Amino acid sequence: MIVSLLLPLAALASAAEPAPRAPQAAPVLEISTGSLSLGAVVELAQKDNPGLKAARQAWLAAAQVPAQAAAFDDPMINVSHMLVDLQTKAGPLQNQFSIAQKIPFWGKRALRGQAASMAAEVSHQAFLAKSLEIMDETVRAYYGLYFLDKTVDILNEQQSVLDRFARSAVKKYTVGAAPEASAFRAQVELAKLENDLVTAEEEQKSARARLNALLNRPPLAPLGRPERPDPPVFRWDDAALERQALDRRPEILALSALKGRSEAERRLAIRNYFPDLTVGYQYSQIGGGTTNMPYDGQDAQALTFGINLPIWLGKENAALRQSRANLSASESSLDDTINETRYQVVDLSVKADTAARLFRLYEDTVLPQAQAALDSTQSAYEGGKSSFLDLLDSERSLLGFELDQERHRVDFEIAVADLERAAGGALSETQGEKP
After folding, report:
1. Are residues 319 and 377 in the same domain?
2. pLDDT at position 26, please?
3. Secondary structure of 186-206 in the HEC alphabet?
4. Whether the predicted model's global pTM rises above the 0.90 cut
5. Is the pLDDT of residue 192 over 50?
6. Do 213 and 280 have their domain in common?
7. Which of 36, 111, 211, 372 fits a disulfide with 268 by CB distance 3.0 to 4.6 angstroms?
8. 98 lies in which domain range?
9. What is the pLDDT of residues 86-135, one digit of tens each?
10. Looking at residue 5, what is its pLDDT?
């Protein structure tokens, strides 16, 4: 449907590591007047939507955590000054200087970095999922506005036709060729149509406000008229759609990364049973001239080694149980999301295919027959062989069918947009068309 609209998203997904980009001058998209293209609306939503901006910044923030998690702790430097000289064989101890570095047990730093990297990948996929969500909502809002615009057009056209019928009914009544009820019924139908028209026009305002909100614009900001989409044709295979969804859907990839994070945390919890090493260097400053020894005043140096003693096993045991529970939860969530994705692909595929088939049915059969029935009834009415109620029923049926056809067109576009969201991006155009 809108394959080219998600190319920037694919570029983001393939980036090895996020990095802020220098601001670049972008062409201003004119959407306030004239024809309003779906591509321009989606592009603007991807650029300006505040929720998507927040998700991107959350990803950029999470991407900075792995380097911190895998780093060594800062070394500790200590300086001691003796308020009262401490006598040693070499002389009075005046000052001591030491530096110590904690070295985690083998593998701990790598696992911390791995867990943080997986958490950053979860944020990355959350950003991509948010991008697809905004695209889907934008498509829905766009075609919702299109349908209401088309509804207003059809109602205005039908109002003109019904007004002509009403004048004909009044004229026949005045010459005694039709009952008075026909003239009154025509006025009632016109009033009902006017009511529908007012309702549709008010709903137009709400639809514009929704689309403007997604574009980070004021609710009443002017918008152009959405373009009419091509006649719907469903051309994708369910099995290929499922493979794409399982490979690319951000929610699945995020849960896979979450599973990897839980596994890294489980392995880290096991390593926390082992002690960390602390190594250091100490320099002692000795005052001279107080002894007759040849090493009088000679400063002392020492290397220090130490380990922590993880003897309070309740903490480590609880951390290990927690990591195992998190891993099990992430595995179950992944399985649940995969099952839901498979269902959504089938369900949305059915909806899109059904909408396309119904559109063709209305295009080829229903509307031509309804128009022919109206023309026949109108001729019969003008010849006095049919009642005004028959004419109104035919006109009402044609109106309903015209709106139904546009609804099927919009339902198809929305179902395809939902499919793109479930499948993780633009649907492949190489898949075979359904019969």
Report:
1. yes
2. 40
3. HHHHHHHHHHHHHHHHHHHHH
4. no
5. yes
6. no
7. 111
8. 75-103+275-309
9. 777 777 888 899 999 999 999 999 999 999 999 999 999 999 999 999 99
10. 44
Question: Do 194 and 209 fall into the same domain?
Answer: yes
* Domain match, 223 and 361 both: yes
Nearest to 41 by CA among 113, 119, 143, 109: 143
237 shares its domain with 179: yes
Q: How are strands ordered across the β-sheet holding 277-286? A: 76-88, 91-103, 277-286, 300-307
| Same domain for 229 and 114 | yes
Residues 160 and 206 in one domain: yes
pLDDT confidence of residue 86: 77
CATH number, domain of 252, equals 1.20.1600.10
Quick check: is 123 in a domain? yes
**Count of the separate structural domains present in the chain:** 2
Model confidence pLDDT, tens digit, residues 255-268: 999 999 999 999 99
pLDDT at residue 383, rounded to an integer = 72
SS (H, E, C) the chain: CCHHHHHHHHHHHCCCCCCCCCCCCCCCCCCCCCEECHHHHHHHHHHHCHHHHHHHHHHHHHCCHHHHHCCCCCCEEEEEEEEEEEEECCEEEEEEEEEEEEECCCCHHHHHHHHHHHHHHHHHHHHHHHHHHHHHHHHHHHHHHHHHHHHHHHHHHHHHHHHHHHHHHHHHHHCCCCCHHHHHHHHHHHHHHHHHHHHHHHHHHHHHHHHHHHCCCCCCCCCCEECCCCCCCCCCCHHHHHHHHHHHCHHHHHHHHHHHHHHHHHHHHHHCCCCCEEEEEEEEEECCCCCCCCCCCCCEEEEEEEECCCCCHHHHHHHHHHHHHHHHHHHHHHHHHHHHHHHHHHHHHHHHHHHHHHHHHHHHHHHHHHHHHHHHHHHHHHCCCCCHHHHHHHHHHHHHHHHHHHHHHHHHHHHHHHHHHHHCCCCCCCCCCCC
Give the integer Cα–Cα distance in Å for 120 and 195: 54
Whether the pLDDT of residue 209 is over 70: the answer is yes
Do 231 and 96 fall within a single domain? no
Q: What is the pLDDT of residues 372-397, one digit of tens each?
A: 988 888 888 777 777 777 777 888 88
